[in-house]
Amino acid sequence: MKQLQLFDDIEIQKPVNVASVPMRSPFRYAGGKTWFIPYIRKWLRKYKGRIDFIEPFVGGGIVSLTVAFENLAQTILMVEKDEDVASVWKTILGKEYNWLIDQIINFEVTHKAANEVFIQSPKSTRQRAFQTILRNRLQHGGILAHGAGLLKNGENGKGLKSRWYPETLKKRICNIQEIKHKIQFLTGNGIETICKHSRDPHTVFFIDPPYTVAGRRLYKYHKIDHEELFDLISTVEGDFILTYDDAEEIEQLAIQHNFMVKRVIMKTTHHTTKYELVIGNNLNWL
Question: Which of the 8 DSSP states describes residue 34?
Fold first, then answer.
């Protein structure tokens, strides 16, 4: 009953103004956590940087990038299973980032040019990275899953160009290069990564898995055994936070595992407000 009481006593909050958060990711990522950054800072600052940080479902990476830029951990491990998303991180954090920047700066944005890139079968990681960035910026909602189409009208009727900011992307990539020594990237399975590091009391996890409903529409690898994930998290010796959609299934799993749960209000890209669940062993700081 204690966990249910935590749900009932939530204080109504104002959603975070995402315009106040530094935009560091090259992705326009569906389900991104820019809105959650002020809470991440509040959570991690108590450790004064003396932790190892792991994000096992990194996606657009705004949380890991913030941890790196703001020195909130001594090491950062980013893990992503999706080969397309992984190719972007490998290229940006690697030696061929300048090639990617050149492709972005010199690309002439038209539907024809974009489709010509999309139909190609990438022959290298860097080519896949450019293709992925292009799809992410120019497809509806930044969705990379199969079936997403190109923007038509865009913002203010400007079509594709309303979502293509080459100089901004260049700046973000160059900034990430400056702190890449703090980051390790791994193409792999998030659950396996959690299992590998679960016994380290100095490791903290930010876990943002594919959600129960929206994940099917947004991500290539949306299938996940949520009960298995909760069982695994209950073995973690360090600190952790899970974020989830406000689903009864997830609420019940949290209660069964004696985790604390709070609802946090956020504003969607369509400017509507909704609640998401924040789950952990100790959320008294929230």
Answer: G
**Number of CB atoms found within 10 A of residue 156's CB:** 7
- Give the DSSP per-residue string, 54-82: EESS-TT-HHHHHHHHTT--SEEEEEE--
Please provide residue 204's backbone torsions phi and psi, each rounded to the nearest 5 degrees: -115, 150
**What is the chain's percent helix, strand, coil content, to nearest 5?**
45, 15, 40
Q: Are 157 and 171 in contact (CB under 8 A)?
A: no
Query: How many angstroms separate the CA atoms of 73 and 224, rounded?
Result: 28
User: What is the per-residue DSSP string for 116-172?
Assistant: HHHTS---SHHHHHHHHHHHHHHBGGG--STT--B-SS-GGG-GGGGG--HHHHHHH
DSSP state of 180: G
- Classify residue 257 by its DSSP letter: T
Residue 81's identity, in one-letter code, is K
Tokens of residue 145, six digits: 């899953």
Q: Measured between alpha carbons, how far is 210 from 57 in angstroms, rounded to an integer?
A: 8
CA 211 vs CA 165, 215, 217: distances in Å: 29, 5, 10
| Blockwise average pLDDT, block size 10, the chain, 286 residues | 41 73 89 91 96 96 98 98 96 98 96 92 97 90 69 60 90 98 97 97 96 59 85 97 93 96 81 88 93
C-alpha dihedral over 84, 233, 194, 125, to 10 degrees? Answer: 0
- What does the angle CA 143 – CA 147 – CA 148 come to, to the nearest 5 degrees? 35
C-alpha 223/C-alpha 215 separation (Å) is: 8
CB 282 within 8 A of CB 260: yes
In one-letter notation, the amino acid at residue 167 is E
The three-class DSSP label of residue 204 is strand
Determine contact, residues 133/109, Cβ cutoff 8 Å.
no
